[in-house]
Amino acid sequence: MSSVPSLALVGRASELRTVIDVIARPPAVVLVEGEAGIGKTRLVRAALGHVPGDRAVLLGYCHQIREPFPYGPVFEALRDVGGRLPEPGTLNPVTGALAGYLPELAGALPPAPPPLNDPRAERHRVFRAIRALLAAVGPAVLVIEDLHWADDGTRDLLRFLIDQPPAGLALVITYRREDHGATRASLGRAYRHHPDTTSVVVPLVPLDVTDVGNLAGALLNRSDLSSGFVARLHDRTAGIPFVVEEVVRSLRDPGEPEALDRAGVPLLLREAMAERMASLSAAAVRTVQVAAVLRVPAGEQLIAAAGGDSAGLGEALRAGVLHEDSRGRYGFRHALAEQAVYDAIPGPERRSAHERVVGALAAMDSPPLVQLAFHARQAGDIEAWLRHGSAAAHRAAALGDTALAIEVVEGMLDDPDLPEPERGPLALKLSKFAGSGLSHQRVVRLLRHVLRDDFLSPDARAEARLHLGLLLSNQAGDTVGGRPEIKAAVEELTDQPTLAARGLACLAMPAWGTESLAQHTEWMARAEKLVASADNPEVAAAVLANRASLQMAIGAPDAFAVADTLPIADTRMAVRREAARGYANLYDSLITLGLYPEAEKIAREGRRLAAETGAEYSAYIVDVSAIRMEWLTGRWAGLRERAIAMSELVADTPQIAVDVWLVLGMLALATGEWEEAARHFHAAGLDAPDSRYAPVVDAAAGGLIELHLARGALDEAVAEAERAVARLRRKGVWVWGAYLAPSAVNALAWAGRTEEAAALVAEYAAGVADKISPAAHAALESARGALASAERRHAEAAAHFARAREAYAVIPQPYAAARAGEGEARAMLAVGDPGAATAFADVAERYGELGATHDAARCRRVLRDIGVEFQLPRGRRGRAAALSPRGKATALSQRETEVARLVALGRTNREIADVLFLSTRTVESHVATVLRKLGVRSRTEVAPPA
């Protein structure tokens, strides 16, 4: 075989310049994407050759067969930074949180801080510690290879570093494009690079014919390769650089097309690797084969225990067949080479090799269960495969890595050799794991397939139907399809009362379905009766969690007493996971009720439980509910962006996302973005109100009524009020009408239907009379104020609105307080109260502070109408906003910023005038000023203000 130099970097000049340029300007992010063998690693290594010597280069690797160890690739990269750290005592104290993860640096790190009670806070502290450690290292390039194999925790950590990068950090990430349908998917849907970070995606594509010829010429040190040879080589290798190299290395007489035919080298280099293996001794071949069977880089001891030896390992390393990584482990330079060697091992020998690997892994102090399951399956030991696979899934779930647990079980179900009797129990196991995670689409398909087959016993079939109904109703957001499955399962589970109790407890949750509260209460009583006589702590905890959730959802006086009985300290993981779900539901209901200090306490405990037990679904319920709480409590700065990011994270779980769409709708309503508001309200549940989450649907209906009233569409407002009130009345949970009731009363009263409005006020008052809901009681005062205003009882209206304003302020709900204050000011103006002007000015200021520009403009319009001068707050002038396509940052006044946002949304001058209560001529003047300041000629060049 010809002697050739190592692979030259051919055809990547532009990409190399890009990577070098970006990492030279930290903070920076480089995403290098492409298929296996395309040259991602080679490109990165070439770029690292241009990194100045004073910059640290840190390398971390993700592996195909992984055990549950979050952040492993990053910690791997950090183990070698000891020599670059400052003197002991000068590091940020938070870096002490890494001592347990980086024992190599224990002597250089500060003392470990005391543990936190909240695992999410603990995780955030670890993230901050890693960031602080990277900052202390100084200018650095952190390379993470093969992100497509990373765990979710590593992706979260990398997103954190990108969002808050140390000033000197350049982050370089490689991943396979075919494993991610979109660029953002490599880091998750919420990936947004920091505006001050240089960020670039570098996609690598196969080489064209010319570049393949150049690469082959460089490898063979020849410039006379025929066009026929180059064309044939390109055809055989598909232009994948690594395959080109291996094919060229295998040629005995390179240069002519016939040489390729004689070699018989397939596209993915099987024969090329065989040629290279043929030159090795038997000991080296055996060692290389062991490395191929292992599938992940391994240490010398494990390779020897599995059938290799040190001499053979040394020979394989010298021949370049195996390579040593930075952690002293040995493996192939590329997965394609590994697969080629593996496929060349005869079947019986492969099975024997996997058996030896199973024995070697099982002898380890902490056996890697995922690898054990894989090798047992390849060895043909079905019993051991099932045993290790189940244990691996349970361990992953116990460690909170629900995604890995699902991945393991799904892989077992995909195997055609899985014994039929095992298929049903595994499908049920999968559905249980999926019940606490976000992954559900494939599980739903599997369960439906299982139910179509005849191999399940009646009891197993009923359990499968129950889990299908639960997944459809919860993660999939399909209550219309899910609830009938649950109801059918309950009737079939006559011999399994605990499972029937679980199904009944789900049906008892009042926020779902069209049944009355009385029916939900009956289902809950049946569930509690069934579980009382059974010895199943997990199901008992599930039923108790739903009872607590039910009581809190309706604002029952005993809700907190029931919640206090949830088994949050139970030693069993499954029991605490049910408590985590209960706490997530409690948090959501407390937000609706307006009990925010209690909600914050429940949220902290719920996040801790969810993190401890791997209850990913429950954790996300808390996170999206927190978005709604931020809107209600007036924390609007950056809320739109946070809500959009969260919507992308939970895009596949529509039932979770409804809070986000509600918040986006309310924010759009407050700024006069009518079309956007309507679209978001429908996404929040008004598109199918009978099958969506009722509390959010009711709030979205209240928002849509307000939208119709703002646009002068009284008939549409009344129609929406009638539909929404009918749903609220049918369900009978009146505390959910805190945002709906005042709007519905307003619409009915101003349509002249004051008797119906008065009846609704009375009905609402009776429905919330004995409930623990500050929000509902404040809303009742607002509804009474709206009715009194419509009936021209203005003094009474002012008093009702004042009480509502004070109650909202205590909760606190500053936007609702401002709306009540506006009602009070209008009533004061109607009776000639001289304090009305001051009241309007105060409300306009409160709206402005929140960012409710349309509402603030409406109040300023009243002040203009009564001849009162009103100056925009000085503190809000001169906002810098990058609005033009040229990225020009220009200082705009508050009014100009409001106009610019509406221009960017495509609004006409007339529409902008309606939203901001200005004359069209005034808007024309503002638009001209905005265009002039931004240096653009067209409205279409204006982007939304930052």
TrEMBL record:
MF GO annotations: adenylate cyclase activity; ATP binding; DNA binding
Question: Which PROSITE patterns does this one have?
Answer: HTH_LUXR_2, TPR
SMART domains, per this entry?
HTH_LUXR
Alphabetical list of Pfam families matching this protein: AAA_16, GerE
Indicate the transmembrane segments per the record. Answer: none
CDD domains per the UniProt record, alphabetical: LuxR_C_like (cd06170)
Name of the protein in its database record: LuxR family transcriptional regulator
Keywords on record: ATP-binding, Nucleotide-binding, TPR repeat
Q: Name one GO biological process term.
A: regulation of DNA-templated transcription
List the record's Gene Ontology CC terms alphabetically: cytoplasm
Swiss-Prot/TrEMBL TPR repeat ranges: 658-691
Q: Which domain of life is it from?
A: Bacteria
Indicate the segments forming the HTH luxR-type domain, all copies.
885-946
Show the InterPro entries listed in the entry: AAA_16, P-loop_NTPase, Sig_transdc_resp-reg_C-effctor, TPR-like_helical_dom_sf, TPR_rpt, Tscrpt_reg_LuxR_C, WH-like_DNA-bd_sf
